[in-house]
Protein 1
Amino acid sequence: MYTIISSRIGTPGDVFTPTDDTNVDALIEGGFISSDKSAAKSAKTNTTKAPDAPSIEE
Amino acid sequence: MATSTYLSNPSVTVNSVDLTDQCHAATLTVKYDALESTAFGGTSRVYTAGLGDHELTVEFYMSYAASETYATLASLVGTATTVVVKPTASAVSALNPSMTLVGTFLEALPVLDAKLGELSSISLTFKGGTYAAASS
C-alpha cells in the first residue's frame, strides 16, 4: 500500500493506488508517495519437541 | 473572426504527478508512418497508416524544490512512463478530452539550464508510446 505525500498526485494521507503503467519507484524516490509495505514475518518454527509428543520408532 | 477559440491552459500530468503549474508549453503530436500503397492503375499516390510515432514536447520551469520539476523527472529519464494532457484542468468530457501516451520514452533531461536574469526552463520530448483519447 502507498500513501500520498505530495498534493501534486492527490490528497496527502490518502491511499495511492498506482495503475499498471505508473513508475512507483520514481514516485517514492521523488518523495511523492511512501510505501507502507513492511517485510512479511516468516512463520516461527518450533524445533523443540513437545513433552507429550509420541516418539517415532522404526 | 473565429467563432470559437481556445486560450491555452492545458493540464499536464507526468507519471501521475500534476505539473501543470510548472508547464508553459505543450505540444502533443499524434503521428503515424505513412506507408505508400499506391498500385498500378492509380492516378495519385495513396498511403496507409504504419506504426504510430507519437510525441509530446513540453516546456517546464525548472525547480529543485520538493515535489517539483526535478523531483518528478529525475528518475524518469531513460525510462518509459505515462503522460496525460487535457485542454483544460476541468473534468474529462467530450469537450475536454484527456489525451494519454502510455509507455512513452523520456530520452533526455536537461538537468540544468540557467541563464542570467531568467527563469530556468527546460524542454522535454516524450517519444513513442501508445496514444489514447478519452472523453469520459
Protein 2
Amino acid sequence: MSPPVELPRWLDVAVLPAVNLLFALLVAGAVVTLVGFDPGRVLGLLVKGAFGSRAGLSYTLYYATTFVFTGLAVAVAIHGGLFNIGGEGQATMGGLGAGLVALAFGAHLPAWAMLPLMVLAAGLSGMAWAAVPGALQAWRGSHVVITTIMFNFLAAALLSYLLVDALKEPGNMTPESRAFAASARLPGMHEALAWLGIAWPRTPLNLSLLLALAAAAGVYLGLWKSQPGYALRAVGFAPDAARYAGIRPQRLIMVSMAASGALAGMVGVNEIAGVHGRLLPDFVAGAGFAGIAVSLIGRNHPAGIVLAALLFGALHQGGSELAFEIAGFSRDMVFMLQGLIVLFAGAMAQVAAPGLARAWRRVAPARGRRHG
Amino acid sequence: MAGPSMSSTPAVQMRGIDKRFGAVHANRDVAISVRAGTVHGIVGENGAGKSTLMSILYGFYRADDGEIEIDGRPVTIGGSRDAIALGIGMVHQHFMLVDTLSALDNVMLGAEPGWRLWPARRQVRVRLDALMRDTGLHVDLDARVAELPVGERQRLEILKALYRGARILILDEPTAVLTPQETEALFATLRGLRERGTTILLITHKLREIMALCDAVTVMRGGRVVLDCAIADTSLDGLAEAMVGRRVKLGRGATPAAPPGAVLLRATGLGWTDALGVVRLADVSLTLHAGEIVGVAGVSGNGQSELLDLLSGLLVPSAGEMQIGGLRFAPAHWIDPRQARELRIAHVPEDRQRRGLVLPFDAWESAVLGYQQRRRYDRAGWMRQGAMRDDCATLMDRYDVRPRDPSLRTSRFSGGNQQKLVLAREAAPGPLVLLVGQPTRGVDVGAIEFIHGRLRAMRDAGGAVLVVSSELDEILALSDRVMVMNAGRVAGELPIAQCSESALGRLMGGAAPAPNEPLRMGERLPDAGRPAGPTAH
C-alpha cells in the first residue's frame, strides 16, 4: 500500500470533495446519456427541484435535517473508533420514545413542557438502544457492527409489535397510533415563520432543523473542545496511547455509543413530533444507513456533515421532482447518482488525492513539505 | 566444521551491493560469500543493514548496484518468486502463516500441485511426511496454525520453505520469539539441515547463537561489512567489539553530581505471564534511588518492555510488589497509569508513535496526553486550550522541538522531534521517577546528544531515571548502574565501572554469571567497598 498523501488542509477539506463530486456527476451524466436522456436537462431539473422554489428548498432542508442527525451519530462513533451502523434502530427507538411520552402526557402538559420532554425521551431511547451494543463491545468484545445491525431488526420488530398489538387506534385498519395532542406537535417552519410575519408554504420542514444545527455545533464543541471529546478521539485514533494516558477505553466506548444513539434518536423528533404527529411504522426509511454515507462524505466533521446532508437532501427532493417531470425517469436513477457519490466521495475518497498532490506541487513547489 | 557436501563454489556470493533509502545508505559496497552446506551468521545492531542485505537476496528490494551469484552463476532476483525458483527460502521474524488454516493448507497455499484440493492435499501430505522424516522437523499437519505453539509454527515455516525446494535458507532473528528450550530444538534442527547440505544464513544480534551454531560470520555496522571470518578465528568479545564499533568511552559524562540518595521506588519479585501462559517476566527486583540513572540492557524481547509496563501501571503483574514513597502495591490493587502520574512517575514509552503520541492530533494535543485533566488544563470538563497551546510552545522552546508550531499535526514531526516532544511532556512536571524506553531509537545524532543531556540533568536534579535500551552504547553512556535482562530475568547487575561491552554482551546472551550472586543495588551500603562484579575482567 502506498502511504497516504499529505495535502494542505484546505485542499484536503474543500477541493478534494469537490473534485470527487464532479467525478460522480460526470459518470452519472454518462449513464444518463446512455439511457437516452439529456444530462444537462436532468441536472437542471434536479437543482431546480431541490432549490428552485421555497417549497422545494423546504423539502430539501427537511430531508437534510434527518441526515444531519444520522450523519452526526455515525461520526461521533467513528471518532471513538466504533462503526455504529445501528442508526436505523436507534432512530426508530427515538421516535418510539418521543411517541410514547406524547401519547401518555400529551393531553395533560402544555407545549413548552411537552416538547422538551419529547426531545429528551427521543434522545434517551436512542441512547439506551445504542448503550447495549456499546456495553457488549466494551466488556465482552462483541463487535458493534454485528450487534448494532441486529438491534436494528429488534427495534423494527418492537415498533411493529407495539403498533399492531398495543397502540393501534380501535377501528383503524393501518397500524398507527392515534394522533398526538396539539401540545405534542413540533411547530412547522411555516408556522414559526408566520409568527415572524413571513409567509412560507406549508411543508414537512419543522423546527427540528434548528435542533439539527445545534446538534452539529454541539458535536463540534464536544469532540474538539471538551475533555471527554479529547479522550474519545484519543481512544479512536490510538487505543494504546489512550491507555497510556490513563484513559479507560471501556468508559469512552460507552460515552461514544451513548452520544451516537442519542443523536440518531433525534430523527424521531423530526419525523414523529415534527411531521407525522403520530407513531407509525418505518418512519426512518433508510435514513440511518444514509447517515453512514453522509458522515463519510462529510469527512466525519460536523461542518462537512451539514453540507453532505444538504447534498443528500437535495438529491432526495430533486429526485422526486425528476421522476415527476420526466416521463420514464425513475427514482432509481437518483439512487444511482447517490451510489456514485458514495463511491467517489466515500469509498474512493483518496483516489484523486495523489493527482491533486502532484498538481499542487507543480503550483507551489516549495510548500506542503514535511517539516523537521 | 561442516557437512560432507561442501564444495569450493560458494552457494551465495554477493559483491558490491549498494542500497539507499532516501538519505539512508543502508548497504555500502557489501560483499559476502557463503559456502554451500554451512551456517553463516550475519550480525549487527539495529539498522546495521543486515536485513536490507537479506531482503535484496530474497528479492524484496533491488540493489542499486552490485551483483549476486547463486552456485557460481550470476542471477538477477526481481522478486521472491525468482528467489524461490533459485532455491532460496526465507523464514521471517514475523511468521507469514494464515492462522485459520491447517498447517498442511499453509504449506500448500500458493504451491498447490493441482486445482482439485483433495488429491492435492494427499499429494502434499505424502511429500511432507517424507520431508519431516528426513529432517526431523515435526509438525501436526492437521492442526490449525492458531493452535500451534510458536516453536512449531517456526518449524512449519521452515518446512514450507523446504517444500518449495529451498537449498539456501534465510532465517531472520529466528530465536526472537522462542523460549530457550525451543531455541535449542531449533539449533538441533538447523544442524541436521546442514548435515543434509542445506546452506543457512542466520540473521541475529545474539552473539551466543553465532558462536554456538555458525561456521562463519559476517559482522555489519553502518551498512558496511566490518568483519568476515570463520567462527574459529573469532570470539564473543571480538564479535561484540566489531558489532559495536569504536570502543565506547565508558561512563562518558556519567559521573553523578552526588551519590545516590533515598530510595524512590522499590519493586520486588515481579512476575508476569502473558495471555498464552508464557512467563515473560520472573522474579525481577529493582530499586531506584534519587539521583541515579539505572540502565536496563538486554536483547529486545527479554522482558524489558514488560518491566516498563508493570512499573508504569499499564500491566498488572502476576506476582511481586512495589513500593513508591509510603505506598505499597500488590497485584490485586496495582497502580494504574493515572495514579502513577499522580505519584510523579513519568513514562517515556518505547513505542512513541503508537503509545507516546496520538499521531493525528495537533502537537499541543499530544503535548498534554496523560496530563490533559490537570487543573491547569481543565475548566469544568472543558479543555483550556489556551493554556495547553502556551505550554506546548514553552516545551518546544525548552526542548528544541522543530518546527516550533503547536498547531502542526504530530505525525508531521520527524522521529527525533517527536521523541523530544514526548520527553519534554514527561519531564516538565518534574517527576521523581522517569521510566524511559529506547530513548533514542530512530533518532538522529544531534537529538541523541540532546536527549542524553536532558536525562542526565534530570538525574542531577535528584530524580531517578530508568533507561531501557537495546543499544549498548546508550546504556554505557548514560547509566550509573546497569541491570541486564535475559529471558525475563535479571541476568546480572553491574556498577558502571565494571561494565564493558563484552561483560554486558555475555550477560545479555544469557551466559551464566560467575558463582557469586549478582549485585542487587537495593542492598548496597552507602560507602562500603563493593565486591568485584561477577563477570568483569
